[in-house]
Amino acid sequence: MALRRLLGLKGIPGLHGLAFCFHGATPSPRPTHRRAPLNKIGKGGFGSVYLRTLPDGCRIAVKKLEGVCQGEKEFHFEVTIIGGIHHRHLVKLRGFCTEGVHRLVAYEYMSKGSLHRWIFGTKEDDATLLDWDTRFYIVLGTAKGLAYLHQDCESKIIHCNIKPENVLLDDNFTAKVSDFGLAKLMSREQRHAFTMMRGTQGYLAPEWITNRAVSEKCDVYSYGMVLLEIISGRRNFDPMEVSEKAHFPPFVFKKMEEGDLRSIFDSKLNYDGDDDQRGRTTKVALWCIQEDFCQRPSMSKVVQMLEGVCDVPQPPTSSRTVSTLYTAAYESSSVLPSAMQLSQAR
């Protein structure tokens, strides 16, 4: 079936008559004389994203991938595996298509956009500021999605690019991890170069910078950094900040040692009652961002700690090595491009 006929993708340059394979129910192939305009809603690490409404009214996010050099057979194999992964906290792959060098994937559309929008929004977004209960719901959902990728898939999947832009939210603010598995479409060398070139500052584990072995513990580190931003409502690095809070993680470690974790919570929120859950969540984040990857918990352990199934011991003090390493990286690097969004434009 022609992709243009099914999705009306004539607005995407270079795509003509591509066959589109859908997972699950197949949308009606009946051509329509009037098509809604195809909207480009984002561009990032893997390419451009377009919003399309199918004839049955279902909205999907179509990604035109860039930098994927696999052959068609290998691409079909890997994407079919990704399409077979189903979890409440993972964005669902609806289909894919290939022709020549062109590679497209289609995902469910996430109406609330990315987490980035909700924790780093403008002043106009204050009316929709997420309360703590909603933030914790997002924190826990994201952890469960990553735990599934690391331990419950038939083949372990390391995301390689966890950050607020890659955590999408549905109508009920259920968190779903996006872009998982796409790093598998690249060779090891391509993946490392891609991550170093397009990974986002402040989320990459030290292993990426020091050329040590990359494992699922890199995702744990990135998750911990995202967790700190959700808790504090600010970025982990603020070049406009002249105080010791400019690089936030070392400041959090300091406040933990002083027994003053409350001072790192988002000041825009009203905190009533017990701080135990917020304190526990902060300690989990500090375990996740340990320099020594062996000290970082697995994502399944993170879920248990967040849910209160097990105690969260006091995390070790962060070494100065990571702080120095990342401060140097921030000062010597420009802002890197953000990853592709599957949701509405920010």
From TrEMBL:
This is non-specific serine/threonine protein kinase. Residues 35-309 form the Protein kinase domain. It is found in: Membrane. It is a single-pass type I membrane protein. GO terms for cellular component: membrane. GO terms for molecular function: ATP binding; carbohydrate binding; protein serine/threonine kinase activity. It comes from the Eukaryota.
